[in-house]
Known about the structure:
- The chain is α+β, with helices and mostly antiparallel strands.
- It has one domain (9-177).
- The protein has helices at 13-17, 19-22, 26-53, 73-79, 100-105, and strands at 61-65, 98-99, 116-118, 121-123, 126-130, 143-151, 170-177.
- The protein has a three-stranded antiparallel β-sheet with strand order 1-5-2. Strands 3-4 form a two-stranded antiparallel ribbon. A two-stranded antiparallel ribbon has the order 6-7.
- A hairpin with a 2-residue loop joins strand 3 and strand 4 (121-123).
- Helix 3 runs parallel beside helix 4 (73-79).
- The two termini are 35 Å apart.
Amino acid sequence: MKSKGPTQVFREPWFKADRERLAMHATALGSALSTIRRTAEAAALRFMLTQLMKDTDTPVVVIGDINDGQHSNTANILTEQPRYLVGDSVGGGDIALYTVQTLQEYRDTRDVYYTHVFQDIRESLDHILVSEQLYDNSRRRRWLFDGMAINNDHLNDADHKVTGSNDHGIVRAVFKHRPIKGGV
């Protein structure tokens, strides 16, 4: 999805027409446009996901760089903000997606997840989202979450771009085929 970097507005006819007044606001305008575009992209993908997932039992996995954090508006649109169940609670959402990062956080005692570093700020911009068939507490679970790892050591090297590595970490999730007993 669109990066967090500001859209380059200086080439736009509307910007050129009023450059004197708008120039000092170029970064704010560009950042706002990037956010709007990312939000629109999330909504478009959510439309496709809802059509694919509604009233089906087909497992769905969405993997990618959404250029936003797990609690961002972008992620909320994509996931439908499901309720995460704990203990022996069971449920699941027909069109919900669950972030693997949250599933891992329920198992860990620390939050040190990041897939991108920009100006010394570490963020998780890359995500794996899974449908209820891969959610531990779902009545329709077919696959049990077995852990997540982020390969991101290269992001801490000052010259990682020179060595040809990506500027994002790689998120990996593992699941075991273990359908819930007595599930639908």
